[in-house]
């Protein structure tokens, strides 16, 4: 090669071996590795010669144009992207072409569907005889998406998804409904008992084993992890994620929502309203702690409990102090919270899927009870929520990094206050009260995530 080859901060590139005729790439010497947008990343092939298949929509403005690519896997690597998220990615080696130059590059596969550029060209792909001029764009000839011409896919290929429902309770209402909704849409779904999974790490392909044999590749994992198995469930989920499966809620987000302390801290940082809350482990100054939340009446909650069991209302300051002393004696983590009396034993459960509230119910506590949990005898009816409540529910879900959540909200004098965000919300109460097919909405959301084309059906 002779002469200096200039690259602007954006360039058209092609990948002859992948069948990609034209991609607009952002050239970023601030990034080490190059990455390519890929969806439905599926490893296959033998252990000696691992391969990967993935889908790419080269034109961000024409999602019906979808190309399936196949490439050898050369590595798996942990990559931290510009938004600070670390992800274990497949690395492929393939040749890139700009103008008349053709050279091999390593590219990591990741979902860049929300990015303006399907390709990021990092500095390891830029060779010595190239110079990058960050002030100009398209130093090399422009290509066009028209090159794909007749390869335009008019009708999406209907490929059923392979879905794993990660649950210890395949027969409960929510599990049954999710299975039913997935099958009704032609997908393969299998309930997998979290605690019966075992994990093999190391090597190029992480594996999840189950009852004596490795599980096949799943496109999607729907985690329904109970509070008693959070830690192991998260490990199993991370393993599935590292096989390239799309996890409907990430292990990290589930962990954050389960940890009431962390969840409150994250919500406070995002200025999401919550009742005034104080956390404690074994404080010496009980009185001071009770006063922090405005004295009695106050609600004391054991951090490890769910379904309203560890939630107690202390009507007087004395009662609150005795409760705090008792919990302290148990060596338990707990919180004490201002009692939102104007909520009058009612809270709103918003079911969020993606960035939408897909159903909302008002739960009213039984007579003489302030906890509205359905497990505590509360009753549910559908409710029209205010825009304010809707926004808070969506925001709380997003802040915790969840895509599916049940957000419990109290309506207080000072606006909606989030009590908790549940990462495996039950569907029974909400489907019965709203008569909505929430499980179906969940499956449709998954289709848009894993196969962007499904949206257009
Ligand atoms: P759990 O995780 O056990 O469901 P929650 O924090 O959701 O615990 O509390 C259970 C129920 O108790 C809530 O749904 C709500 O009805 C009631 N509750 C909880 N905290 C308060 C509070 N600070 N003020 C008024 N009611 C509350
Ligand atoms: Mg609750």
Word description of this protein:
The protein is an alpha+beta fold. It has four domains: 147 residues, Cathepsin D, subunit A, domain 1 (Beta Barrel), CATH 2.40.70; 87 residues, Rossmann fold (3-Layer(aba) Sandwich); 64 residues, Dna Ligase, domain 1; 97 residues, 2-Layer Sandwich (D-amino Acid Aminotransferase, Chain A, domain 1). The chain is built from nine helices and 27 strands. The strands form six sheets. The chain has a nine-stranded mixed beta sheet with strand order 2-3-10-4-9-8-7-6-5, with no helix packed on it. Strands 25-24-23-26-27 form a five-stranded antiparallel beta sheet, sandwiched between helices. A four-stranded parallel beta sheet has the order 13-12-17-18, with helices on both faces. A hairpin with a 4-residue loop joins strand 2 and strand 3. Helix 1 crosses helix 9 and helix 2 runs antiparallel to helix 3. The longest helix has 13 residues. The protein is elongated, with a radius of gyration of 26 Å. The C terminus is likely disordered. Bound molecules: adenosine-5'-diphosphate and magnesium ion (MG). Adenosine-5'-diphosphate binds next to strand 20, strand 22, strand 26 and strand 27.
